[in-house]
DNA sequence: AGAAAACTGTCAACTGGTTTACAATTGCTC
DNA sequence: GAGCAATTGTAAACCAGTTGACAGTTTTCT
């Protein structure tokens, strides 16, 4: 399933384009494979490709001067990333890494911007989706500000499990493949600090912990539990 | 200076529109005045106007069930807000309040979306600016995760002073009109916790504290100081 | 001017999360 | 399948920021 056209056709960002446009995009696209933990691009690189995930998981993160990594988000197959697409001239603002083995369809930035101009009916969808990403970013800021660590970690788990499901309705346990350390790097906490909360959630039967993975047993129950605290 | 056209013409978001389009927008726009602390819209309201600030400051915030307010950002005159413009059907996601007395030019959402479609050359500017807002939101998440409270508060002060200057080059002290409590609500901290850091900054001559305002004496020096810690 | 309201400064007790350190487990590689 | 690296579990000391409480200051309102 690495047919570029098919991948692009299923990407929500490109839903506003007619088939002809996507076939054209597919011809200009490059399909690349990455191994787990292989860097896709680094902060600062001048490229501006639009990347659509055909398979695998991609981790968007930022590493500061002291070498600490802040994991900003994990994207699943079907979604898109590549923050510089819409701001030509700016380089990459964050780094992207294959979290698991991944296959990407990369559409060159200049070509994509030209395609948008030629099919302006596609703009509203793009704007809507970017707006939504802005909102989810802002809700994280809001939760960082207002809620306690327990609620924040739980909320992040729900967010991750939702990404995993790709928007499909929830049914049964969802397993997220992240180490405790990755979670800690997302929360701005330590591995040990996260551990305590996760253990508490496990004791309440909300999640199950494994080596390198966390299984959310019942999203609804977790959500309900979070509502009660802080 | 409450001429709707002039205000719209100076708004960066609308820079891609020809004059004719903005005159049309001005005719459809409504100019409204607000007193300090008067609500502009509340979370959940179904409207989707695009709001451009002619005068004054606007506070975007979210109040949770417990009545705690998270101040997300303070917008200055010349900028725009109204998160629901690009996602018709969704209501307001956050609340907006006049932080100081303010005058707004409000363009109805449906009309604005129609205008965009009729002048598609304006889209790239809009996309670029929304992308930039997404980035600044993400950098806040990143800093929340990686940096200590001192650095985070300092960074926020710099961000606020930059907003105050409206992008103009820095020269001399900049005064930000915010109570310690507002800063605390932006950082997810308590008034007392913020106080300690601000007092330390003041002791180092980086800022001056006043009743309801904070003066950043030397942005460059503050920036440099922040680089040294955490 | 006088009173009320909002904001600020300060301090001690408390506490949740970090730090530091080490042991146990899991999974991968040769 | 032995060895090694990565991940996880655990616990005590520590500390930055919160909580709660109160007094002083500035502004606004009448």
Structural class of chain A: alpha+beta
Summed up, the helix count of chain A is 8
Average pLDDT confidence of chain A is 93
Would you count the extended β strands of chain A for me?
Answer: 11
Q: Give the quaternary arrangement of the chains.
A: homodimer
Strand order of the largest sheet of chain A: 1-8-3-6
| CA gyration radius of chain A, whole angstroms | 19 Å
Poorly predicted ranges of chain A: none
Main sheet: strands, sense, barrel of chain A: 4 strands, antiparallel
- The fraction of residues assigned to DSSP E strands of chain A is 15-25%
* Helix coverage percent of chain A: 40-55%
Spatial gap, N to C terminus of chain A: 45 Å
Instruction: Name the chain pair whose interface involves the most residues.
Output: A-B, 39 and 39 residues
Order of helices and strands of chain A: HHEEEEEEEEHHHEHHEEH
Shape of chain A: globular
In short:
The structure is a homodimer of 230-residue chains. With 230 residues, chain A is an alpha+beta fold.
Structural commentary:
The structure is a homodimer of 230-residue chains. In chain A, helix 5 (149-165) crosses helix 7 and helix 5 (149-165) runs antiparallel to helix 8 (219-228). Chain A contains 8 helices and 11 strands. The model of chain A has no long low-confidence stretch (mean pLDDT 93). Chain A is an alpha+beta fold and 230 residues long. The first copy, chain A, binds a DNA duplex (30 and 30 nucleotides) through helix 7.
Keywords:
globular, 230 residues, four-stranded antiparallel sheet, DNA-binding, alpha+beta, 11 strands, homodimer
């Amino acid at each position: 399933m690495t047919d570029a056209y098919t991948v692009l056709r299923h990407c929500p960002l490109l839903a506003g384009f007619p088939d002809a446009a996507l076939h054209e995009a597919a011809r200009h696209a490059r399909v690349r494979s990455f191994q787990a933990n292989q860097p896709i691009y680094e902060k600062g690189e001048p490229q501006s490709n639009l990347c659509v995930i055909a398979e695998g998981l991609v981790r968007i993160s930022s590493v500061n001067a002291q070498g600490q990594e802040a994991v900003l988000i994990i994207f699943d197959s079907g979604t898109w990333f590549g923050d510089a697409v819409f701001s030509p001239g700016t380089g990459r603002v964050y780094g992207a890494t294959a979290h698991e083995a991944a296959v990407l369809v990369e559409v060159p930035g200049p070509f994509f911007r030209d395609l948008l101009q030629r099919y302006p009916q596609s703009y509203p969808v793009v704007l809507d989706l970017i707006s939504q990403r802005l909102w989810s970013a802002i809700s994280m800021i809001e939760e960082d500000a207002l809620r306690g660590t327990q609620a924040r970690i739980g909320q992040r788990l729900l967010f991750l499990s939702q990404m995993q499901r790709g928007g499909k309705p929830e049914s049964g346990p969802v397993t997220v493949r992240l180490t405790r350390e990755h979670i800690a790097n997302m929360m701005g906490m330590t591995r040990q600090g996260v551990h305590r909360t996760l253990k508490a959630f496990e004791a309440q039967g909300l999640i199950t912990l494994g080596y390198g993975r966390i299984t959310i047993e019942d999203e609804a129950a977790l959500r309900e539990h979070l509502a009660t605290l802080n």
